[in-house]
């Protein structure tokens, strides 16, 4: 998914107004505002959705989609990094009462997010750089990145300012157990995840 900046229009909430217009004109595209810039990403490919479903099912089988927490794809996350900033993570693990934390523009306060997960596409730099700062600033406890470009799985924990204190990349053949703070023990098989996310060459 490629990302492109869009010029700032006029109005009370100019970026959000323009982002909403873009979403209406481009169904299926993801429109986010990070650092005061509108980013537009086209619909993901099949392996992106495939590995995302695998991960959702893994988290759900650990009991994370129930009374205490919910797993939601494409849930808006309101960010403290700018007056109109928001992201739409591929997958979010949130407290079950997340609906009590509606912030603005159909997005939710970061306080109810336990984990966010992104599967990279052609916009991998956004996930590996811009969203690290954004999610850390929002104090999201755990950020997981399935980095298809470099064939790595990144786990970031301990948000501090606009970065994470702990950032560990994992390679094929390794496993990683996510922090218990998410609400259950979840161990990720990096090789299996990266294989599911890989797009076959034509």
Tally of DSSP helical segments: 4
Widest sheet: strand ordering: 3-6-9-10-11-12
Computed structural class: alpha+beta
Average of the residue pLDDT scores: 92
Could you list the spans in which at least 5 consecutive residues all have pLDDT below 50? 1-10
Shape: globular
Radius of gyration: 16 Å
Major sheet summary line: 6 strands, mixed
Q: Estimate percent helicity.
A: 10-25%
- What gap, in angstroms, lies between the N and C termini? 18 Å
Order of helices and strands: HEEHEEEEEEEHEEEEEH
Strand content is 25-35%
The number of E-state strands comes to 14
List the helices and strands and how they pair.
Layout: H1 14-25, E1 30-34, E2 37-41, H2 46-61, E3 69-73, E4 76-78, E5 86-87, E6 91-95, E7 102-104, E8 107-108, E9 113-119, H3 124-137, E10 142-147, E11 152-160, E12 163-170, E13 175-177, E14 187-189, H4 190-197
Parallel strand pairs: 4-8, 9-10
Antiparallel strand pairs: 1-2, 3-6, 4-5, 6-9, 7-8, 10-11, 11-12, 13-14
Molecular structure report:
By secondary structure, this protein is α+β, with helices and mostly antiparallel strands. The chain contains four helices and 14 strands. A six-stranded mixed β-sheet has the order 3-6-9-10-11-12. A four-stranded mixed β-sheet has the order 5-4-8-7, with no helix packed on it. It has a two-stranded antiparallel sheet with strand order 1-2. Strand 11 and strand 12 form a beta hairpin. Helix 2 packs antiparallel against helix 4. The longest helix is centred in the first third of the chain and has 16 residues. The chain is globular and about 50 Å long. The N terminus is likely disordered.
């Amino acid at each position: 998914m490629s990302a492109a900046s869009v010029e700032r229009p006029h109005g009370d909430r100019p970026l959000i107004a323009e982002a909403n217009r873009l979403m209406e004109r481009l169904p299926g595209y993801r429109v986010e505002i990070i650092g005061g810039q509108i980013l537009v990403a086209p619909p993901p490919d099949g392996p992106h959705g495939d590995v995302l479903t695998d991960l959702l099912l893994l988290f759900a089988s650990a009991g994370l989609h129930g009374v205490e927490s919910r797993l939601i794809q494409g849930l808006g996350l309101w960010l403290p990094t700018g007056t109109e900033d928001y992201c739409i993570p591929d997958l979010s693990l949130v407290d079950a009462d997340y609906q009590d934390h509606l912030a603005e523009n159909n997005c939710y306060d970061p306080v109810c997010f336990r984990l966010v997960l992104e599967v990279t596409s052609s916009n991998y730099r956004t996930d590996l750089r811009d969203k690290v700062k954004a999610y850390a600033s929002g104090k999201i406890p755990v950020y997981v990145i399935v980095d298809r470009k470099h064939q790595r799985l990144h786990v970031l924990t301990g948000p501090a300012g606009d970065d994470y204190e702990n950032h560990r990349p994992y390679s094929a053949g390794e496993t990683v157990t996510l922090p218990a703070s998410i609400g259950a023990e979840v161990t990720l098989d990096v090789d299996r995840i990266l294989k599911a996310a890989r797009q076959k060459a034509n």
